[in-house]
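We treat protein structure as text, and this decision shapes the records that our systems exchange. Below, we set out a record of this kind in full and without editing:

***
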Amino acid sequence: MSSPSFSINVLKNSIKITMEPPKGLKPNLLRQYGNIKDQDLEACSKPDLFKTFFFSMCFFHAIIQDRRKFGPIGWNVRYEFTNEDLIVSRKQLKNFLEEYDEVPYKVINYLGAEINYGGRVTDDKDQRLIRTILKSFLTPDV
């Protein structure tokens, strides 16, 4: 973005770098796991449950990002889902697993689908889709 206090000549002669999500599910999952430290995975009082649900969240994150490449077939409106959405979801997941004896599936699904990721989803069909996708990944069967 141009700014009157920043020289255009410097900008023209600079190397510009952008961060884009990787193409495909496997590279996206590898990137997510590359961004987390082993001690973060073990920091929860229920590490096995946390690792399982975190993988589900990463897979969900990769799917909703990958759907963007299909244009209007993937999402009716183009949304910018970010790594911060996943980071917030990971922290909430850890907090809920430590705070409750039983896993609060409804709460975790609601926070993820309606607030963390769904907060920017404006189309009613896309809202329904994101709820359905997440509900299939955060279940007792996982």
About this structure: The chain has one domain: 20-137. The mean pLDDT is 85. The radius of gyration is 18 Å.
